[in-house]
Design brief:
mainly alpha
Length: 74
Amino acid sequence: MARTPETRVPTSECRETRRTTLNKLAKKFDITISLCLGSLTRWLFCFFSTVSFPISVHLNCGLLAILVPYILHM
């Protein structure tokens, strides 16, 4: 029994589905990266504040001034 052209899925439809799937994966990946960066910056800040507190409070203030807008922007 020969297949009629209507039963075949158009190539453009396949491409569209693939693109949608890739977009969903990319969004999940972006969220994961943002979360990792957020926790990394928090860890770095904790590390710097414990190590450099006796040495220089100014460094912490500078670090905070740089990191806070960056974290809030994410």
